[in-house]
Amino acid sequence: MKAQRRVRVFEWLVTLPSLVWLLVLFLIPTVLVFAITFKPATPYGGIGSGWTLETLRTLGNPNYPAIVWRTIWLSVVVTALCIVLATPMGYYMARISPRRRQMVLLLVILPFWTSFLVRIFAWKVLLHPEGLLKQLLVFLHLCTPDTSLLYNTFAVLLVMVYTELPFAILPIYAASEKFDFRLIEAAKDLGATSFRAFRAVFLPGIRVGLLTAFLMVFIPSLGSYVIPDIVGGPTSEMIGNKIAQRTFVDRNLPHAAGLSALLTLAVLIPMITITTLRRKESPKDALREEGV
Amino acid sequence: MKPSRVPMIVTWAVILFFYLPIVILVANSFNSSRFGGSWESTSLKWYIRLMQEDDIWHALQNTLFIALSATLVSMVLGTSAAFALHRFAGSRLQKLHYSIIYTPLVLPEILMGLSMLLFFVALKVQLGLVTIAIAHVTFCLSYVAMTVLARLQDFDFAIVEAAQDLGAGWWTTVWRVLLPMLAPGILAGGLLAFTLSIDDFVISFFVAGPGSTTLPIKIYSMIKYGAPPLINALSTILLVITFTCVIVSQYLTQQEPKAAK
Predict the structure, then answer these.
(1) Which of A157, A166, A169, A163 is nearest to A87 (CA)?
(2) In terms of CATH, what superfamily is A62-290?
(3) Does position A75 have pLDDT exceeding 60, yes or no?
(4) Please, which residues 72-111 of chain B have a Cβ atom closer than 8 Å to chain A?
(5) Angle at B37 between CA B31 and CA B41, to 5 degrees
């Protein structure tokens, strides 16, 4: 009895430091975002006392539905492109010799560890009106000298795929590595074409990896802000840009909080769905994948 | 039937796509022309200019101060969290503990940045280096916990029992047996935390105050408001540093299993 109590005390002792830290600095601030939505803004950029529905009313801004819609469809397209590119890569990486696999993995991980801003800036240089890509396209008569490759939705999409792709490759590769490729041989022996075996045997086999990739790409994409800010223009703004503008440009914190609350809700729905889907699948696998 | 070549082609095309902008960026940093469009001459002019920018050196100091403190704190909190999650897996407290550690990993950074800014403003805390470091601990903690937890999955707890059977006390077991064996995992988590902290822009930008410009914040303002050739040079230096670190750490972790045998 006494020993059992000591174990309980020990459990609390090792749990409390991180639990309290995250309760105070993660959970409370997240709840605070919802509360501050109903607070008035003060003229000098602070948060006033009392309660108001003013922010909710201003969230009815006629520009917002278009921005919300753009945020969602851009994130969906980015996620789809990342998964479409990452799946054959996972398949390839799982089938090559360990030496080569190590090399390809290193090539994939290197940009993933490289500074986020540096990678976005590299694209800004490449897409720049006087940059190499533009000159090449003009030379090949694929575009006219006055088409802009930068500051539009296409640039945002391209750079988002570029930065999010490793987050799709790693979980899909991890799942492919555990996949038993003899199943594909079996399917082919039974008369399936390569494509049919890929679709009906391989894809269901790496389901957990695909779900993780979806989660790891789609959710951060919804909150993108730096990429549309640097390579996008006024016609490619996302919710993140609006949150930043309300915070830094007009310093209306309750309004920024209202938009954040909206984004939090938008993020929680896919997150809870996928997590429950994956728990059902295999809790142990899910845990391992998250370690990536 | 011959295996399809599509996966191989996609893989190498993506790798080309990954490196193309990086290669051009590096090449441009040695180009004396202000815009990358034409090649004037090869020069180190932008590197020399960079050395004279005091702001950048100051921002680097801030970044290192934040990264070191955030790494140390998150290593302690994250290791203890991973231990609790592993040792008491399945208890209701740990289920709650796991979800609160896991959620920050997927949540968009901007939400964390704004919520922490509101928290500090509501408590009237002065924004600066300390608030950035606190924010960094909050997201680094989860990464360290997950990395150490992955290591604990392969950890053989019989060793701990053996130590205790041989008369080692609780403290000796933790200090002389558990921690040394988990050291590679804790260090890997720390390295990840350090890299993430050095690279973080969004969260830092939200909770930064006057005089607490970090290197990413400085780079961001350089990208937004001019000075492209200087960023080329600075980016190249950062690329060389991260590439070296990643290759060295890959080499070290590859050697490890051999040494164990």
Answers:
(1) A169
(2) MetI-like (1.10.3720.10)
(3) yes
(4) 76-78, 80-81, 83-84, 87-88, 91, 93-94, 96-97, 100-111
(5) 30
Rounded to whole angstroms, the Cα distance separating A102 from A282 reads 27
Closest CA to B170 of A4, A16, A7: A7
* Domain extents in chain A: 62-290
Pick among B14, B93, B148, B194 to test the A interface (most A CBs inside 10 A) = B14
Which structure tokens are listed for A198? 């890929």
A20 to chain B, closest Cα gap in Å: 10
CB within 8 Å of A118: residues ≥ 6 apart: B25, B219, B235, B238, B239
Identify from A7, A11, A15, A273 which residue to disrupt to test chain B contact, counting B C-beta atoms within 10 A and taking the largest count.
Answer: A15
Instruction: Give the pLDDT of residue B165.
Output: 86
Q: What is the ipTM of this complex?
A: 0.87
Which of A102, A114, A267 is facing B108, going by the closest CB pair? A267
What residue numbers bound the domain in which B124 lies?
54-226
- B169 in a structural domain: yes
Residue B173 placed within a domain: yes
Cβ contact A90:A173 at 8 Å: yes
- Token pair, residue A287, equals 């845990």
pLDDT at residue B227, as a whole number: 66
DSSP label at B4?
A: P
Percent of chain A with pLDDT over 70: 95
Nearest to A268 by CA among A224, A208, A209, A222: A222
Instruction: Report pLDDT digits (tens) over A111-122.
Output: 878 889 999 998
Let me know: does B206 contact A247? Beta carbons within 8 Å: yes
pLDDT at position A157 = 96
Convert the pLDDT of each residue in A79-108 to its tens digit: 999 999 999 999 999 999 988 998 999 899
Please count the structural domains in chain B.
Answer: 1
**A47 phi and psi, to 5 degrees?**
-115, 125
CB neighbour list of residue A140: distance below 8 Å, 6 or more residues apart: none
Positions in chain B whose pLDDT score sits under 50? 1, 256-261
Extract the tokens encoding A100: 């080569």
